[in-house]
Amino acid sequence: MIDIVGGSIAGISAGIAFEQFGFPTRIWERDNPIYSRDGHAFLVLGSALGSLQHLGIAEDLRNTSANIQRGMYFDNKGDLIKSFDLKDTFGTKRIDLVRILTSKYSGRLYYDCDLEKISFDDDFYTLEFQSGEITKASTLIGADGANSRIRKWLYPNHKLHTGGYFEIVGSCDNASIVKALDNSFQKHFSQDHINENHIAFGILPTGGDDLTWFLQIPVTVPEQVNDLYNVESRENFLRELTANWSSLIVEAIESTDTNSTYVWRSGYMDLLHTFHFHNMFLVGDACHPLLSMTSQGVNTALEDAIHLAQLFNDNDLQDVGNLFYSNRKDVIADRIEYGKHLADRFTKHPEQWVQMVHLAD
Hints:
The chain is α/β, with parallel strands linked by helices. Helices cover 37% and strands 30% of the residues.
């Protein structure tokens, strides 16, 4: 039995991938991710198509998501700065992807299992949950997200870094905006007249008349971010900041219930020295949190899950950890560095940032 801690995208993908090779699994999840609002939506890039097909969810995702055919960058008045084609790329709500994955998983999925303590002895991992439940695992996969308790147990001094920017994220139902987007993912840029920062406003259709938007702003005054956790302050901030932007953005904000918006601080972590400890393995954000600007978090999690399962099937267990690290570390290191460079240009040299962004790899 393979125990997986974390029942969101990385964890359930791992469960499916291992089951395809005949390995029984069970998943322990802190919450019910179907009802979590964090990570409203994201791009699933064309480079993930092979992973989606391998897991048997490509068509399901295509049927519930928006088909994104172009990336388009504009100034705040709506004049085009840059445009590029995208293939096999989807705008997807997190809730939809989790539901699709869950429907394909045939193992046991336990909710309300918040991991409190982990220990290792005699080749077994003992997992203690806040509910009081205790279980032992001979093989363990940590897929418990960017704030992974399993990773903190393995690497207690390895810390998350902030990207130097924060986001306000919202979603709404607006058929006219979705029609105007015409299967494109858009970002609009402007200068924040309050703090003289450059800011970006992204709009992503996610299927039907639904869309998610996000406002990205460099952190220059930390107290300002704290103020925005208050709904009224956030509503006033959004209204004032985007008042002179294109009508598309103004309409998106006006169509959104501010109570459903939230503040998000994306983070990254430098490359770990290993992705395993004995028979314990890390995947997805638990292994390598990536900055949101890379649009690579979902793709990388799917790749991790499938590759690890393949290694289990093809190799002796004692060799899997080193192979997993040697095969994945360069790709992950490149994506970490790409995110760091993007964040640095966004906060310091925004004119370079626009030319640097790509969504193909």
